[in-house]
């Protein structure tokens, strides 16, 4: 199943820079591994904001939830999830 996931990062201003850098580096490694696995299909920065729009391809709601929980920045993100289905006018046969 495909999901559009919007994440807005809100790190506390009181967080030491070294801790923020450590979280971001770990997040990056996990995000890149999930992209290589095919589960995190698209990752786009929202211009002008510390936010992203992503497309995930996972078995269902529970897998998506468990996956998002593994992200080191999870406690510091507002996350919105929207389930997607194939558009009847889409010419792409990999849409599900
Ligand atoms: O920077 C972000 O948008 C938050 C998060 C998502 C992927 C990643 O590497 O960090």
Automatic annotation (TrEMBL):
EC number annotated for this UniProt entry: 5.3.3.4
Record SUPFAM superfamilies: Dimeric alpha+beta barrel
Alphabetic keyword roster: Aromatic hydrocarbons catabolism, Isomerase
Pathway(s) annotated for this protein in UniProt: Aromatic compound metabolism; beta-ketoadipate pathway; 5-oxo-4,5-dihydro-2-furylacetate from catechol: step 3/3
Superkingdom of origin organism: Bacteria
Record's catalysed reaction(s): (S)-muconolactone = (4,5-dihydro-5-oxofuran-2-yl)-acetate
Gene3D superfamilies to which the protein is assigned, alphabetical: Dimeric alpha+beta barrel
InterPro entries hit by this protein: Dimeric_a/b-barrel, MLI_dom, Muconolactone_d_Isoase
Residue span(s) of domain Muconolactone isomerase: 1-89
Biological processes annotated in GO: beta-ketoadipate pathway
GO molecular function annotation: muconolactone delta-isomerase activity
Enzyme class: isomerase
Similarity remark: Belongs to the muconolactone Delta-isomerase family.
Assembly and interaction partners: Homodecamer.
Name of the protein this chain belongs to: Muconolactone Delta-isomerase
Organism for this UniProt entry: Pseudoduganella albidiflava
Gene expressing this chain: catC
């Amino acid at each position: 199943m495909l999901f559009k996931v919007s994440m807005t990062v809100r790190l506390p201003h009181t967080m030491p820079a070294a801790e923020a850098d450590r979280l971001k580096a770990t997040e990056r490694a996990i995000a890149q591994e999930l992209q290589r696995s095919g589960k995190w299909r698209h990752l786009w920065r929202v211009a002008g904001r510390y936010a992203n729009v992503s497309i995930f391809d996972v078995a269902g709601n529970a897998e998506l939830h468990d996956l998002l929980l593994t992200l080191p920045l999870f406690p510091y993100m507002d996350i919105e999830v929207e389930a997607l289905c194939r558009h009847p006018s889409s010419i792409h046969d990999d849409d599900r």
